[in-house]
Specification:
Blueprint lengths: L8 H43 L2 H21 L3 H14 L3 H28 L11 H10 L2 H17 L3 H26 L3 H29 L15 H32 L2 H15 L3 H19 L3 H28 L1 H9 L7 H17 L2 H7 L3 H49 L13 H20 L3 H18 L1 H4 L1 H4 L7 H8 L12
Helix pairs in contact: 1-7, 1-11, 1-12, 2-4, 2-5, 2-6, 2-9, 2-10, 3-4, 3-6, 3-9, 4-6, 5-8, 6-8, 7-8, 9-16, 10-14, 10-16, 11-12, 12-13, 12-14, 12-17, 12-18, 13-14, 14-16, 15-16, 17-18
């Protein structure tokens, strides 16, 4: 049993306050890098949707969904376990285990990739309607080779992380990979090519990126002395240790894969590719609601773990709800566009061909924002050791998604898929939030209620305005104004002056944040 050293309460509160501030500032720096890659990828996807026909894009999106499904299984989650075990083995000088761990992941990738490729080539009947259309099936037979390539890419990212090469990770994931795919898309537009050219280009770009970084890592591998004389012999595969660590949490990785990829595959089985196109076209815009949550999670976990090790439940509660408030407010501009202004945004971005897809965007965007506004509930449960509960609710969410999808998709097509996706996401987050009630964090913190109230009022107001105006470039300034007002109203809860004093120096925003307004919040330690 761990012994917690007692400290002066004022010192504990000061340390927790400083930890929250560092987490928020550091996460915001990571958020910038994620915005770069998401922005480039979003531009690429937008150009693809506008260039290809609806049927071609539906076929291409279906193929990517199949690839994403198999990617979730490709390494059996071992690419995450390797970031924990490899540094330990390397630090101890256990080079045989370092090589064995890498070999184990490569073996898992090889086996699952062969199964994926074999399924597409040997059992095309599982693909449903695409079998009757030779073009889409040929497209999938190209894209399926992305499974081993993308899995190797994830492995390389983990390996660079093990040997502390953050610049390599940043450049590979946030710059090189999206720029290579953007180059393929630009060629698609200028050459007036088809989806087959796009599929081949995506595959070539992925292979090029992985090849470059494989050479760089091989040199790093040798520089670390793993092939020095006396270290070249023997391979010790730590299969049991890595699988015991990985398999219980593999369900967490499968939840988004099942919710989106399996839903797309079921949709493609019952309906033509034009329905797949409507569903998949709006997903990237809906995903943008998740970008702040994903960025904040990087530094949230280690800080929450340190507070948990000290037995500081009050610190965890403050960290959790302060972070949730920031995520809710920072994500609001995207939420306002993708939810409140979904109808205008869909037509503006994707054209009249996808005009009837706006309810899908609104449903899925709302579900993603619901997840972001509630904070890092899943990570908190894992930090606090509620692994069995996490596994159970993950399985429940996946089962619910599959059942709802099969119930709705045959009759309602893409809209039914959107309803099933949103329902599963909301259910999953409600279950995670329920698990926090016994963890000292609570289902909701009354001090955040004014934050959420301001957000609801702003979102509803913009939606009503859209019904009256329905012109995106007129509504866009209104969305920006409401976002600023939400930030100004919630500034006391966010502690802007402590967390980001630089914002106070900006001409317009600084004046708005410095303006004296009543403090409806009470961020005091309980």
């Amino acid at each position: 049993m761990a012994v917690v050293t007692e400290q002066h309460p004022a010192r504990v509160r000061a340390h927790a306050k400083d930890s929250v501030r560092k987490q928020l500032r550091g996460s915001s720096l990571l958020l910038l890098g994620r915005f770069i890659s998401r922005g480039i990828n979003f531009i690429s996807q937008l150009l693809i949707v506008r260039t290809l026909t609806t049927g071609e894009y539906g076929s291409f999106a279906y193929g990517l969904a199949v690839v994403a499904f198999w990617e979730g299984l490709s390494s059996l989650g071992l690419h995450k376990a390797i970031t924990r075990f490899l540094p330990i083995y390397h630090e101890r000088g256990e080079h045989a285990r370092v090589r064995g761990a890498i070999l184990l992941v490569l073996g898992a990738i090889a086996i699952t990739s062969l199964i994926a490729i074999g399924t597409v080539f040997l059992a095309p009947g599982l693909i449903g309607r695409l079998v009757s259309e030779k073009g889409p099936l040929d497209l999938l037979m190209i894209l399926i080779f992305l499974v081993p390539v993308e899995a190797l890419d994830e492995l390389l990212v983990g390996l660079f992380a093990c040997f502390a090469r953050p610049r390599a990770i940043f450049f590979r994931k946030h710059v090189l990979a999206p720029l290579l795919k953007l180059a393929v898309v630009v060629l698609l537009v200028f050459l007036h090519a088809d989806a087959h050219f796009l599929a081949q280009g995506y595959l070539a770009a992925s292979i090029l990126g992985v090849s470059i970084y494989s050479v760089i890592f091989w040199r790093l591998f040798r520089r670390e002395g793993l092939f020095d004389s006396g270290n070249t012999g023997g391979i010790d595969i730590p299969a049991r240790a890595m699988f015991v660590f990985t398999l219980p949490l593999l369900t967490s990785n499968l939840v988004p894969v099942v919710i989106h990829s399996s839903a797309t595959m079921i949709l493609g089985y019952f309906h033509p590719t034009t329905e797949v196109a409507k569903y998949r076209a709006v997903l990237p815009a809906a995903h943008l609601n998740n970008i702040v949550l994903a960025s904040f999670g990087t530094l949230f976990t280690p800080l929450a773990a340190r507070l948990f090790a000290r037995g500081d439940r009050a610190g965890i509660r403050t960290l959790y709800w302060r972070s949730a408030a920031w995520m809710a407010v920072l994500s609001f501009p995207v939420f306002a566009l993708t939810f409140s202004l979904a109808r205008s945004l869909t037509v503006t971005l994707y054209g009249a061909r996808y005009a009837d897809a706006w309810p899908i965007l609104q449903l899925v965007a709302g579900a993603y924002y619901f997840s972001a506004a509630l904070g890092n509930n899943g990570l908190t449960l894992k930090v606090m050791g509620r692994l069995r509960y996490v596994v159970v609710i993950n399985l429940m969410a996946m089962l619910a998604n599959i059942l709802i999808t099969f119930a709705l998709v045959p009759h309602f097509g893409a809209l039914g898929t959107g309803i099933a996706t949103a329902s599963a996401l909301v259910l999953h987050n409600i279950l995670k939030q329920w698990g926090l009630r016994s963890a000292g964090v609570g289902i909701i913190d009354r001090r955040t209620l004014p934050v959420y109230a301001a957000i609801v009022i702003g979102a509803v107001g913009l939606f009503v305005l859209q019904l009256l105006v329905n012109h995106f470039f007129v509504l866009l300034p209104a969305a920006a104004l409401v976002s600023f007002l939400v930030l100004a109203y919630t500034k006391h809860a966010l502690h802007v002056e402590e967390t980001f004093p630089e914002l106070l120096k900006l001409p317009v925003l600084g004046a708005l944040l410095r303006a004296k307004t009543p403090d409806p919040f009470a961020w005091r330690s309980r």
